[in-house]
Each structure stands twice: as structure tokens, then as C-alpha cells.
Design a protein that fits this description.
By secondary structure, the protein is an alpha+beta fold. It is 26% helix and 27% strand. Helix 1 packs parallel to helix 6 and helix 5 packs antiparallel against helix 7.
């Protein structure tokens, strides 16, 4: 490991945690590559990525190329001459980049490949009601998330876990798996790999707003999984019409299930106006715990009900 160097590529907090673990382990990081600084928040102040924040604080060299095929950027990578590129939650790399280092380019993915290839593996695993997921390190090849598997680590998904909780669990375990993988490659031995078979693998495509809408005609379990699989981001949503006839969207961030063979219309709201708000579905009720209205903050249902006298919504 003494003469072994890497270039780390990543942008969000998920990647920052891996960078920190690798850096604290003493592995030589020749350069950090991350997304360009962007305006964020109400004030639109320029904000650095989580990965850049860590790199700058720890005096690691940083590159932020707008174009990964730019000749000057490619020449810079060749000059650095790192042994291995390590990618976590970054952009798709051109072949001229991932094929450059002597030991290849590895990626950390938040699923047990070949299942849940794509941009949203954490969300889709919970939305599909999976009880197990995990992490995979693999060599990057031409097709996204299809390269030879190096190591995997399984993780149990508790039935009350939402996407944010699973994200944090995988984020912390991911750095450890990356460290094992880097050590394995750095020893210079033949790295055992597994070829991915993907004939019946499940997908994890990018989520769009239409994918997050709640289907109230679905099963109780599927609706519950849909809500927790999209919490806290991007958020499961539904449309409703108020007593004044105005149509609006609202998000549900936390809920519980209540099985009940009721005869209420589906969906319809039921509340005592103080302590509970639940929505009837085919097999019972979705008991809402946290929600958000347009232009409002996310709030507990008890807080919401205090300011919602005579709640009369038609949900669809």
C-alpha cells in the first residue's frame, strides 16, 4: 500500500463518507474529482459538494471538470498516473477515463448486483418490499453497473426502515467494503471476480415525479412500502381537493398500516381532528404520521391537525 495511489471520484454525502474512511486509513489519494460548485438554497449561494468540502478541509487536491472528455482533463489524469480510480456516486465515465489506470476503475454500488442496477437502488429496494439488499464493489465497464463483481456485503432491511435510514446504513458500511477492495487490489495478486448474470435482475431507474405518486388502489403493503421507500427524498405524494374546490398536492413522509375490513370508499380521509389522520385503502388504513403541504414545512400529523379545522379533503 505504501506506493499505491488512487484518484477518488464522487459528489454527495454518500461518497464523502467513503472518502473519509479511505483517507483516514492512510491510503494515498493523489486527487479528488467532484462536481462543480453550484448555487443552492433560497439565497442561491455557491455551495461545494460534500466530497469537495472534505477534500478542501484535508488539503487534498481537487479537480472539477465540466467535461470528462476534455483533452486537458485527460492529460492531467495521465500526469497524475494513479494506480486505481475509485468511484462512488459520480457521473458516468467515458471509456478513455475508466480504462486509464493500471489496476482499472472500481465503483461502489448500493445494491447486491446484478439486482437494482441504476440511479435509485435504495429507493426501489424498499418500494419493492425487499428484506435484504447490500453493497457491491465492481470493475467499471462499458455498460452501467454491469462489470465484474469484486466484493459484496448483505444488509437486512427492517420493515420500519425508510430510504433515508437505509441510505445512512449503506453509506457507513460502504467505506469499509471499499477499503477491503482497495487492499485486495493493492496487494498485486489476482483479484477474484464474479461475472454478473442479469437475465431476471430487478431494475432501479431514476425516479421522476410521476413515479412517486401514491396509487391508492394498490395493496395496503405496497402503499406503505411506496411511502417509506421515497422518504425523506423525493417524497411520496398524492393529490387532494379541499372544501373550497382547490386542488393541491401533499406529501406523506411517515405512515403506519392498520388492517381492517372496512366498508369505506377508497381512498377517503378519517380523523378525530386532534390525534390521528388515516386514509382508507382496500385492506385497511394508511395511518399518516408525517406530511407536508405545498409551501409548508414537514410536520407531525398532530401538529398539522391543530391548524386544520374541519378537514374535508377528497383524495385521488
Amino acid at each position: 500500500m505504501e506506493n499505491f495511489s488512487i484518484i477518488f471520484m464522487g459528489t454527495p454525502e454518500f461518497a464523502r463518507t467513503s472518502l473519509e474512511k479511505i483517507h483516514k486509513e492512510g491510503i494515498h489519494i493523489s486527487c479528488v474529482i467532484t462536481a462543480a460548485d453550484k448555487p443552492a438554497g433560497r439565497g442561491q449561494k455557491i455551495k461545494m459538494s460534500a466530497v469537495k468540502n472534505y477534500a478542501v478541509a484535508n488539503k487534498l487536491p481537487v479537480l472539477q471538470p465540466p467535461n470528462l472528455k476534455d483533452p486537458d482533463f485527460i492529460d492531467k489524469l495521465k500526469t497524475i498516473d494513479a494506480d486505481l480510480f475509485v468511484v462512488v456516486a459520480f457521473r458516468m465515465l467515458p471509456e478513455i477515463v475508466w480504462n486509464m489506470p493500471q489496476h482499472g476503475t472500481i465503483n461502489l454500488h448500493a445494491s447486491l448486483l446484478p439486482n437494482y442496477r441504476g440511479a435509485a437502488p435504495i429507493n426501489h429496494a424498499i418500494m419493492n418490499g425487499e428484506e435484504t439488499t447490500g453493497l457491491t464493489t465492481f470493475y467499471i465497464e462499458k455498460e452501467i453497473d454491469t462489470g465484474k463483481i469484486i466484493l459484496q456485503d448483505k444488509v437486512h432491511i427492517d420493515e420500519t426502515m425508510n430510504a433515508g435510514m437505509l441510505h445512512d446504513l449503506l453509506m457507513n458500511k460502504g467505506g469499509d467494503l471499499l477499503l477491503k477492495t482497495i487492499r485486495l487490489i493493492a496487494r498485486g495478486e489476482d483479484v477474484p471476480t464474479t461475472i454478473q448474470l442479469s437475465e431476471s435482475s430487478k431494475k432501479a431507474p431514476k425516479l421522476f415525479p410521476k413515479d412517486c405518486k401514491i396509487n391508492w388502489n394498490d395493496t395496503l403493503k405496497n402503499i406503505y412500502n411506496h411511502i417509506r421507500g421515497l422518504s425523506p427524498y423525493p417524497g411520496a405524494w398524492s393529490e387532494a381537493q379541499g372544501a373550497n374546490g382547490e386542488t393541491f398536492k401533499f406529501k406523506i413522509f411517515s405512515a403506519e398500516t392498520e388492517k381492517n375490513s372496512h366498508r369505506h370508499s377508497v381512498p377517503s380521509i378519517h380523523t378525530d381532528g386532534k390525534n390521528f389522520l388515516k386514509i382508507s385503502v382496500s385492506e385497511g388504513f394508511i395511518v399518516v404520521k408525517e406530511l407536508q403541504l405545498p409551501g409548508k414545512k414537514r410536520m407531525a400529523v398532530t401538529e398539522f391537525l391543530k391548524g386544520s379545522r374541519g378537514l374535508e379533503w377528497a383524495i385521488y
